[in-house]
Amino acid sequence: MGAVRRVGLGRVETTLLWPLHHKVLDFRNREPVLGDVWAVDVLDHLEVDRRDVRGTSGDRYLTLLRAAWIDARVRAWVAAHPEGTVVHPGCGLDARALRVGVPGRGLWVDLDLPEVVALRRGLLPEPRGYRLVAGSVTDPAWWGRVPAGAPVLVVAEGLFEYLGAAGVRGVLERVASRFTGGGEVVFDVVAPWVGRAGRAAGWPMHGLGDVRLPERWCPGLELVEAYSVVGDFGSVPERPLRVLYRVLSVWPGGRDAMRVLRFRLRGRAGAGPGG
């Protein structure tokens, strides 16, 4: 993968280092959740200011459980739609396309800001049927590069929290109006109190309390699943953190601190269950 690269990103963009660091810690754990060896390879080729990641280790299972749950849904969707398109905006340095596999006769599109794509390119293999695109998820121009007629799965992880309601609504409306073949949209949200805490710490985060709100924004969306990351405490291999998550899950605000939502996207021709 070449020489070691110095990481020089903006403050918000450096958050892509957090899940990378968490996956490396997980790989070295006796009971890994993901076992993502790609993360180890990538971090080994980056010159990182450890202060950017050191303080995030305690809540790493929020990242790991979220990623594992999304991986399972993406893997199942790709197996059912080998001709489909997976769009992963805000991909960062994530190796999901390699972990779960690209659609056999379709396309996988990873998207991120130009500076992130410049850092990522060459660090991870680009298999057949894979495309890495530089752009912003809120810019309508790049969507024209994605096939509109095939079933589509849009996956946004650790992204929508930083867009705000108007930004998220704009993206969902564009997806619902463009893709005629149906499919799914999967993204994570944090509770309003988490968003307030993030802003108090200087991060431009926003929470979503009503998980049905996207349905009212876009009639073409139908909520089919809402996964509570904290509520999945039984999947945490380390007992102290498993107990902490279990205690937090008793409180609705704690249980809903981070959720992953899966929406069915009804195409104009009337897609069936699962897109």
Automatic annotation (TrEMBL):
Q: Which GO terms describe its biological process?
A: methylation
Gene3D superfamilies associated with the record: Vaccinia Virus protein VP39
Give the highest taxon in the source lineage.
Bacteria
Alphabetical list of Pfam families matching this protein: LCM
Q: Annotated Gene Ontology MF terms?
A: methyltransferase activity
Keyword DNA-binding belongs to the record: no
Keyword annotations: Methyltransferase, Transferase
Q: Which residues cross the membrane?
A: none
PANTHER family assigned to the protein according to its UniProt record, in alphabetical order: S-ADENOSYL-L-METHIONINE-DEPENDENT METHYLTRANSFERASE YKTD-RELATED, S-ADENOSYL-L-METHIONINE-DEPENDENT METHYLTRANSFERASES SUPERFAMILY PROTEIN
Name this protein carries in UniProt: O-Methyltransferase involved in polyketide biosynthesis
Instruction: Please report the organism this UniProt entry assigns to the protein.
Output: Nocardiopsis flavescens
